[in-house]
Amino acid sequence: MSDRLKGKVAIITGSSSGIGQAIAVRFAQEGATVVIDYRNHPEGADATKAQVEAAGGKAITVQADVSKLADTQNLVDQAWSQLGGCDILVNNAGVEKNAPFLEVTEADYDMVLDVNLKGAFFLTQAFVKRLAAAKLPGRVINISSVHEDMVFPNFTSYCCSKGGMRMMMRNLAVELGPLNITVNNIAPGAINTPINASLLADKPKLNALLANIPLGRLGKPEEVAGLALLLASEDGGYTTGSTFVVDGGLMRNYHEQ
Question: In what residue span(s) does the Ketoreductase domain sit (predicted)?
Fold first, then answer.
């Protein structure tokens, strides 16, 4: 266990699996206390907590649906009441819905935008309000996607949410800079996580994707977590307003078949 985040408290949304879980464990290994957020899977949150504790760290779990403002407020309140504050926010929770544009329903659109963009927007607001009132610095790290910039046919609502997250990050970097709060995005490409389970099971589709990735493999959640650590630590203190792509070269080489 190192101490690059010693004494820091981090909220990580959607940290019961995948990238969020990897970030929670990595932050704990570096000395942070983590708030593990989950929506529907307490057993996943408990598994993350067990990994954090095995790494010598401390964690609490909080159930919160980030698409609900009361839940986002409670997530921040729990960090302050149970842990005495919060220094780092990782907006990781995300959903996607595969549908041709002509078949997208209002309910599906609302679900994707509410979780991916509205949730990150208002959770960041609640997080920053506490820091501003206490005159404390902070770090906001959004787990965006290569699709904040790259087309993804049949996932238009997802692309809208991530494109919105890109502009939210840029705006807030300027607006919150005077408060010594940095805001950055990490844009993963194809990462080996539960959200990609159907892709992993479809060998022809997977092989076609791998042919587009110069490094020839999917990324690991831990590789995203390493970049999140950089942005959360003192090494990232002068970095704000940027998107950092973690995609094995996919964006530079991608073309629709």
Answer: 8-189
**According to DSSP H, which parts of the chain are helical?**
18-29, 42-54, 69-83, 106-113, 119-134, 156-176, 197-201, 203-212, 221-232, 250-253
pLDDT single digits (tens) 10-50? 999 999 999 999 999 999 999 999 999 999 999 999 999 99
Q: Where are the domains of the chain?
A: 9-245
Task: Looking at the structure, give the CATH architecture of the domain made up of residues 9-245.
Answer: 3-Layer(aba) Sandwich (3.40)
What residues are paired with 11 via a beta bridge?
A: 35, 89
Interval 73-113: pLDDT, tens: 999 999 999 999 999 999 999 999 999 999 999 999 999 99
The C-alpha atoms of residue 11 and residue 140 are separated, in whole angstroms, by 10
Which entry of 38, 109, 158, 254 is annotated as an active-site residue? 158
Q: Which two tokens stand for residue 229?
A: 């650590």
State pTM to two decimals. 0.96
